[in-house]
Write a structure and sequence with these properties.
The protein is built from 6 helices and no strands. It is mainly alpha-helical. The chain has a domain of 83 residues. The longest helix is centred in the first third of the chain and has 21 residues. It starts with 12 loop residues before the first helix and ends in a 12-residue tail after the last helix.
Length: 159
């Protein structure tokens, strides 16, 4: 059973349209608030021997090209890039990063597509595996980082 309401609200069509426009305007303002012109990301030039250099320049290269096989739960070749210690330690083929020595770093040699003999079968192939070689610019960034000491964030925070 319906209860009778002691009053009624009667609005004209123009009043209803006014409320609708006001509501649509508010919703539109909220939606458009995040759609302003994109602010270009500022690239700060950090010293290669700093954590900031790793986070800004090196880590994005690893995320785009390496994490699919060596990040998260993936550990191809028993190599994980999930923590700083694991990234340096390497996998079944040995130490991946020798701080200060790109030529001795397995990681650098593999991204350069240099032949590598570790004595552990199967030998690692060029990295990234089954993908196009990294650009010379990206390889140079990783080499500069290793040469400067391969400084990484303290473990506990994702590298």
């Amino acid at each position: 059973m319906l209860k009778e309401v002691p009053y009624t609200i009667r609005l004209t069509l123009e009043e209803w349209m006014g409320f609708w426009r006001m509501g649509a305007g508010v919703v539109g303002m909220v939606l458009l608030a995040g759609c302003g012109p994109a602010v270009p990301k500022v690239h700060v030039v950090y010293d290669p021997g700093t954590v900031e250099f790793y986070r800004q320049d090196v880590q994005p290269i690893f995320q785009a090209n390496c994490y699919r096989c060596h990040g998260g739960m993936n550990r191809k070749g028993e190599y994980s890039m999930q923590t700083s210690a694991a990234l340096v330690r390497g996998g079944k083929h040995g130490v991946a990063v020798v701080a200060g020595d790109p030529a001795a770093s397995l990681l650098v040699r593999l991204i350069r597509h240099e032949p590598v003999v570790t004595g552990v079968a199967p030998e690692p192939g060029p990295m990234p595996n089954k993908k196009k070689k990294l650009s010379d610019a990206d390889i140079a960034v990783v080499e500069r980082w290793v040469k400067a000491g391969a400084v990484l964030p303290v473990d506990g925070a994702k590298p």
